[in-house]
Amino acid sequence: MKDIRIVFMGTPEFAVPSLRALAASGYRIAAVVSQPDRPQGRKRVLMPTPVKAAAEELGIPVLQPERVRRPEAVEAIAAYEPDLIVTAAYGQILPKSLLDLPRLGCINVHGSLLPKYRGGAPIQRAIMNGETVTGVTIMYMAEGLDTGDMISRVEVPIEPDDTAGTLFAKLSEAGAELLVRTLPGIIAGTARAVPQNDAEATYAPNLTREDERLDWSRGAKQLYDQVRGLSPFAGGYTLLNGEVFKVWQCRPADGPGGGADARPGTIRAAGGRLFVAAGDGWLELLQVQPAGKKAMPAAEWLKGMRLPPGAAFGG
């Protein structure tokens, strides 16, 4: 049963546990397809994707087409004669010619409980929206955006202090375990696929710069969820004296005392702690990054600051 030929398609760290689980379980991975290497860091060094690095470690051939829809890319994948294509956060939409290629179909490890949070940023947006439960769904792929029939799913709680980083790690491991449990039924033809209810669908588009902007008129809990849904990959940002000021960690707080009617964005320091007025209370900033500086504890930033009366964040 495990002698089927699998082509695995994935790019970021989220997909690595699924690839490793397939290999550890004895499945025959004919090839791995990942996004092209991209320059990273200030020095713009060309770096392999996490999936490529894992595949090379496992001794699996890697393809990195710029556009998987191009005929030459489809032909290169078809040359491996896959019985099944498994994708996990690959990052490109597969054309019908690829979806129709393997006899067992194409399946996807998706980081949400479909039909909620279809799209490219389901993990971040679940946190940003204040959800307390999410999960992983394994589904047959279709031409629409995460619209295929669902095969299996597992729920994962979102803890109050989870960030996008911690939840990515939890869901990637949960997805790998679910994939290994689900594959035997797919191969044997006994897996029962359930259509999604499109009326219940919600969407999780990729994050934009606007999603990172902190609107201090929002509630403290909403701002907290926004920041932890962005961390540690982007963080939230505001403006201070016209310059970008990033917030990496924060939490709702009782505030510095007094000033209950402070306008949103008002900055207060008390006892070495940094507070900002939100729309319905106070947020304590724990880790910040002023323009041109590295991220630092808010207490460290305050040591070198003399905040004038009425100081406020904006933007």
Features:
315 residues; alpha/beta; Rossmann fold; Methionyl-tRNA Fmet Formyltransferase, Chain A, domain 2; 2 domains; six-stranded antiparallel sheet; 9 helices; 15 strands; Formyl_transferase-like_C_sf; Methionyl-tRNA formyltransferase; protein biosynthesis; Formyl_transf_N_sf
Distance between the termini: 58 Å
Strands, count: 15
CATH superfamily of the largest domain: Formyl transferase, N-terminal domain
How many alpha or pi helices?
A: 9
Tell me, what's the shape?
Answer: elongated
Strand order of the largest sheet: 5-2-1-6-7-8-9
Q: What is the residue-mean pLDDT, rounded to a whole number?
A: 94
Number of domains: 2
Low-confidence stretches: none
CATH architecture of the largest domain: 3-Layer(aba) Sandwich
Quaternary arrangement of the chains shown? Answer: single chain
| Estimated structural class | alpha/beta
CATH class descriptor name of the largest domain: Alpha Beta
Order of SSEs, N→C?
Answer: EHEEEHEHEHEHEEHHHEEEEEEH
Most strands sheet: 7 strands, mixed
Secondary structure: helix percent: 25-40%
What share of residues are in beta strands? 25-35%
Q: What is the CATH topology assignment of the largest domain?
A: Rossmann fold
- Rg value: 23 Å
Protein architecture, described:
By secondary structure, this protein is α/β, with parallel strands linked by helices. The chain folds into two domains: 5-200, Rossmann fold, CATH 3.40.50.170; 209-303, Formyl transferase, C-terminal domain (Methionyl-tRNA Fmet Formyltransferase, Chain A, domain 2, Roll), CATH 3.10.25.10. Helices cover 26% and strands 26% of the residues. It has nine helices and 15 strands. The strands form three sheets. It has a seven-stranded mixed beta sheet. β12 and β13 (273-277) form a beta hairpin. α1 runs parallel beside α2, α1 runs parallel beside α6 and α5 packs antiparallel against α8. The chain starts with a strand and ends in a 12-residue tail after the last helix.
